[in-house]
Specification:
The chain is an all-alpha fold. The protein is 73% helix and 0% strand. Helix 6 packs across helix 7, helix 7 packs antiparallel against helix 8 and helix 11 runs antiparallel to helix 12.
């Protein structure tokens, strides 16, 4: 996922970002060795976001040799401190087998933990796994519950998907009114796919 991990990180824990402003600026400027030195200082004091950044840099080989093994160590340190983005990355690693072996059960476990902490992406992942039956028996009803949870907490993509499920009756009874409600909610926030869906409905 390359630089997306850094973008993803910037969406969480603004106070921690402020504290690590110099290290984050160093990454943005390509001064990876300086950034790593700063992040390690914060990590030694138990900062889960610093652990997450270090893990990401090991995954991408920024200032260090690429090492999934070392990245996993720091991701686990971050996740153990309730940092949801680290849990999401761990879930993706296990789901995609990026550490050499696919483990859907571990992936689902990490996504579920992150979802409980309010992570939209994790809720979407859980919904996808239940709807599509990834590693478990398909259960669209449970899947849609996760999608609805993500939608209610602000995910525009979830709102779009939820609108479609109501229109198509996937995991819920067909309800055009609810379908249009969620589609319009996403569209009003400028979510392109929802705008396109509404235009196609007319």
């Amino acid at each position: 996922m390359h630089f997306v991990f850094f973008i993803f990180t910037l969406l969480f824990i603004p106070s921690a970002h402020a504290a690590m402003e110099d290290a984050i600026r160093a990454v943005q400027e390509g001064r990876n060795e300086d950034a790593l030195r700063e992040f390690h200082q914060y990590a030694r004091h138990g900062n889960p976001l610093a652990d997450y950044w270090i893990a990401t840099m090991y995954m991408q080989g920024r200032g260090v040799e690429k090492s999934m093994e070392k990245a996993m160590v720091f991701l686990h340190k971050s996740a153990k401190q309730e940092h949801a983005p680290a849990m999401v990355v761990l879930g993706n690693i296990h789901l995609e087998g990026r550490n050499g072996k696919v483990n859907v059960n571990l992936a689902r476990g990490w996504f579920n933990k992150a979802a409980k902490l309010g992570d939209h992406y994790a809720m979407m992942r859980m919904g996808e796994m239940y709807i599509s039956g990834i590693g478990i028996k398909a259960n669209p009803v449970i899947g849609i519950r996760y999608i609805r949870q993500a939608a209610k907490t602000g995910s525009l993509k979830a709102k779009h998907i939820l609108g479609l499920t109501y229109l198509q009756g996937i995991g819920v009874k067909v309800d055009e009114q609810k379908g249009l409600f969620w589609l319009k909610s996403a569209a009003q926030a400028g979510f392109g796919p929802a705008l396109e869906t509404l235009q196609n409905i007319k």
